[in-house]
Amino acid sequence: MRIFAFAPFALTLAAMMFVASIQPATAANPVRYEFDKTHSSIMFFVNHLGFSLSTGRFLDFDGFYSFDPDAPEASEVDVTIKTGSLAMQDDRWDAHMKNEDFFNVEKFPDMHFKSTEVVKTGDKTGVLKGDLTLLGVTKPVELNVTLVGTGKHPMAPRLVSGFSATGTLKRSDFGMTYGLPNVGDEVEIRIEIEGFKEVSDTMTAQGEK
After folding, report:
1. Which domains does the chain have, with CATH numbers?
2. Chain centroid to CA 100
3. Would you say 171 and 194 are in contact if contact means Cβ atoms under 8 Å apart?
4. HEC string of 46-82?
5. For 7-22, how does the pLDDT look when each residue is reduced to its tens digit (9 = 90+)?
6. What confidence tens digit (pLDDT) does each residue in 136-195 have?
7. CA atoms within a 13 Å half-sphere pointing along the CA-CB vector of 140
8. Are 57 and 189 in contact (CB under 8 A)?
9. Residue 104: left (phi > 0), alpha (psi -120 to 50), or beta?
10. Reduced to 3 states, what is the DSSP secondary structure of residue 126?
């Protein structure tokens, strides 16, 4: 009798636990965005011989990110950067940075970042964790992210959002050791991203709402 008396309680408890376990997944409704490359920048800074912080940019990249302001932990980022698009504002320097000493762009034309976790730290801030693959080596990287803004674009009928992200990594972790220690090992990353909500062909034909 005791076993039968306990059964309804056990079933109720199991049902409550199941509902609780699925609530976070069903609550999140992230919107997928495509990069607005005109208003986005991927930059890095590295110490040059102890005298300055040299600045470089990657001009060609593609991918997406998804974001829900009510559940930022459900956000995702997936971006591929073309290493050959590196720009240091000097042709000879560009050529050196693209050869085997640094990015070896002929053998490794792509650099790839895919998020693994997003941790909310404030109303508009969080830590984006992910795996970066560079020179055939994959290592975890963390970026501190700030939401700049999100809403309807004032000059286009589309949802738009923008973020700033900063972080550091060691290039030697990826096997890029040329110039050490005169050229800095630690690389500062700064990313400014603006993106439009992705629009399907059907929505494009009907007009996004």
Report:
1. 29-206 (2.40.128.110)
2. 26
3. no
4. EEECCCEEEEEEECCEEEEEEECCCCHHHCEEEEEEE
5. 444 444 344 444 344 4
6. 999 999 999 999 999 998 887 889 999 999 999 999 999 999 999 999 999 999 999 999
7. 6
8. no
9. left
10. strand
- Backbone CA torsion sign across 21, 22, 26, 32: positive
- How far is Cα 189 from Cα 132, in angstroms, rounded to an integer? 13
Is residue 118 within 8 Å of residue 100, measured between CB atoms?
no
Query: Which residues does residue 156 pair with via DSSP β-bridges, in sequence order?
Result: none
Tokens coding 160: 């738009």
Rounded Cα–Cα distance for residues 125 and 148 (Å): 9
Alpha helices in 52-188 (DSSP H): 91-98
For residue 163, the surrounding DSSP H or E stretch is strand 159-170
Spacing of C-alpha 59 from chain mean position: 16
Q: With 0-12 CB in 10 A as exposed, 13-18 as middle and 19+ as buried, what is 191?
A: buried
| 9 token code pair | 């309680």
Would you give the DSSP letter of residue 30? P
Report the alpha-carbon angle 106-107-112, nearest 5: 100
Q: How far apart are CA 25 and CA 162, in angstroms?
A: 24
Spatial separation of the C-alpha atoms in residues 199 and 207, rounded to whole Å: 9
pTM of the model: 0.79
